[in-house]
Design brief:
InterPro entries: Beta-lactam/transpept-like, Beta-lactam_cat, Beta-lactam_class-A. GO terms for molecular function: beta-lactamase activity. The chain is α+β, with helices and mostly antiparallel strands. It contains 10 helices and 11 strands. It folds into 2 domains: about 15-60 and about 180-200 and about 210-298, DD-peptidase/beta-lactamase superfamily (Beta-lactamase); about 60-175, DD-peptidase/beta-lactamase superfamily (Beta-lactamase). The protein has helices at about 1-15, 20-30, 65-80, 115-125, 130-135, 140-150, 165-170, 180-190, 195-205, 270-285; strands at about 20, 40-45, 50-55, 60, 90, 110-115, 155-160, 175, 225-235, 235-245, 250-255. Strands 1-3-2-11-10-9 form a 6-stranded mixed β-sheet, sandwiched between helices. The longest helix has 17 residues, at about 270-285.
Amino acid sequence: MYKLLCIALFCTTSVLAQKTDKALQDELYQLTKDYHGTIGIYVQDLKHNRIASINADSIFPTASIVKIPILTGIMQKIESGQLDYHQRITYTDSLFYNEGDDILSNFKPGSTIELSKVMMLMITISDNCASLWLQGLAGGGFRINQILDSLGFKDTRVNSRTPGREANRSQYGWGQSTPREMASFMQRIVQGNILSQASGEKMLRILSRQYWDEEALSQVPPGIFTAAKSGAVDASRTEVLYVNNAANPYIFSIFTKNNTDKSWEYNNEAWVITRKLSALLWKHFNPKSTWQGPAVSQ
């Protein structure tokens, strides 16, 4: 009860203290007004505690961003002593996932690997075999959702392989969240109050190692510390990003669904608008910066 009260007070205080950045809000509307699909954005100015948003509380598919909640479930098991970060675990036939080019799906049954490396594969290259393995080790979707509920998240949920959430899976896929909740999730990791300070710091380090860096991350100078996770399925592309630049740190999430453009090329409309948003925010929070990222479209 005390923990839930603290979470409620934290969330209420944060919301009451926040003000809307009206100039940035107008820029977001201009950026998104002609988008062919449904788009949601939430931006948090961590220096001035200001926000800007579009459809911030609408529920969207997470695609692979659901791996942040799965990571939280694993970290809770490690924190409680039920798992060890460096323990070796054994791959079996039942873990095979025959989609894409996942590294773990090419393992031979009986092979062992450190838990920490499976966590790295899930976050860094978004290996789905690793993710499903970790979801099971975390206690399954139901247990992860219990943790999310205890942390005060009402819309962020794991749907896949979670009894009672079949209808949600049909609508949203593996997981679901809102732009506001996922940006807040990242903020709490940054602040060290998602589980504990130590767990938050470890999660932040893991989230800073991203192979998929051609969308939002591409528009941030490579010398700036970032932590991120992205996701993509045919009609939905998502990303959440923390940018720890000295002048003005910020977090933003962008979610899309019902996308008309379902292509997988660089100029996919959702990916282009993600790069445009990231470039816009870098310039907004760093007006004196002369750095130019790669072209947002080709």
